[in-house]
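@channel anyone free to eyeball this complex?
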Amino acid sequence: MGILIVGSLALDSVATPFHSVEEALGGSATYISISASYFSGPVNIVGVVGEDFPQRYIEMLESHNIDVSGLQVVQGGKTFRWSGKYHYDMNTRDTLLTELNVFEQFDPVIPDNLRKSRFVCLGNIDPVLQLKVLDQLEGDPFVVCDTMNYWIEGKQDELKKVLKRVNVLIINDSEARLLAHEPNLIKAAKMIRDMGPQTIIIKKGEHGALLFSEDVIFSAPAYPLEMINDPTGAGDSFAGGFIGYLFKTEDTSTGNIKKAVIYGSTMASFCVEDFSTKGLENLSYLRVQDRYREFLTMTRFDELD
Amino acid sequence: MGILIVGSLALDSVATPFHSVEEALGGSATYISISASYFSGPVNIVGVVGEDFPQRYIEMLESHNIDVSGLQVVQGGKTFRWSGKYHYDMNTRDTLLTELNVFEQFDPVIPDNLRKSRFVCLGNIDPVLQLKVLDQLEGDPFVVCDTMNYWIEGKQDELKKVLKRVNVLIINDSEARLLAHEPNLIKAAKMIRDMGPQTIIIKKGEHGALLFSEDVIFSAPAYPLEMINDPTGAGDSFAGGFIGYLFKTEDTSTGNIKKAVIYGSTMASFCVEDFSTKGLENLSYLRVQDRYREFLTMTRFDELD
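replying in thread with the prediction:
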């Protein structure tokens, strides 16, 4: 059985100071699944799209060994749309438009054959939906969860119920501070671990990511890129690489989770090199490994003499 | 011959959301020298203070094997004063007051016996003064230089003359962007290296530091602290640990410079744990090495299988 990924599929219109695209492929489940697909298959998506979702996107996903049989296609419905504009420094963005469309009525149904999935990634969607997914799972899956400030502010009670039931929370630095009401990230991470997840990964964009687990703090840099074309999906690509590697190795020890963080950072770095999912579409596991090695070079220093 | 450090000695009044101090010991040369003193002596300061500079501070410096014979004491003069207030997140601060006092007329004179110093650290002072120091040096010293946005904006021509003559520039991320007119740090670092220094270290506060050298990018995390009491002097403490370790080992190879970056980060982490120079005053090389080992633990991940 493969990885189960539940999240959004979207049509994104993105503008940066240098370029823009209209109705390109986006959504958390999309980035997570393509990113995870380089590690081991099969990758299974559960999500929803409208009748207008281009067939070529479905084919691209399938070409990455992504099983879309759990994808609901709403006849007459419109796919979720998001539009955003990045600032000059590429670290901040304004959301120009969010049209939930078919996502508004989305009721995630996990196909019978996927209910015993051992590795599950809950993309950034309404925690009410994340709970519905958790309720359908059987056995003792390893669950990785993403969320965002919108849910932290609007659905905190539901989110806290989710947190009690997941193994890993992936969150960015401002979201961690918001969720814990604490400006110091190290304290905030401790407080969030007390809410449930054994492991927290705090993404810091161009500053990399921090992993907090039982007695362990691990710091991963971001890959140094001279040109970031589109930061959209970086966090989801991180999550995909992270869970993809854990699934491939079936090892959730702390040492292996550290490696998974580096694979996550690796996939995020490929993602931001091009618009939409383009940066992820034509990779190979060899290229992924090469970049992993660059992370090693970039962080290694000698022991004491 | 020891390390030569030229910079400011100041009386700082600092307020954070949690505590405040009045006229505490501050200044770039102060932090750099105490920090460097844990690695190898002697450490030599060249700077200026007024008659009002408390004798107990001089004694504290001397107790760290810091030679103050190059320190000018201006009779009837007042010591440089700085006052600042940190915001709730401790990452940003407002300068409330800058009184140059005796610093306004400061003409750095390098004592004859220090002109052939092999390791020199130019603290963050007017680039005109940094040039005067460089003009007095003999031989082929290894020079580490700090600067700030104030000089980048006000004395850029002089600063660029300095940059042509130093080996390492230590600068923070916003200063690097300002100096290079480039928001991408990786590009900015390349552009600044083209201005002269073979090596650039970009400090990113709680996000650690990046080292850029010939064909090398190295990323060092910040030490994860749950309580930061006073960020003042962190950058100078970094510079002190960095040059202190290079001087101790007399090895400026890239591999050793990476280790020096970690020792710099180590000293910065001790600095911010207490107000003024208190966090640096009562350390031992064993404690410094213990923290260095923690940096190893925090960054190590396994090679590819």
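from a first look: The two ends of chain A are 48 Å apart (CA to CA).
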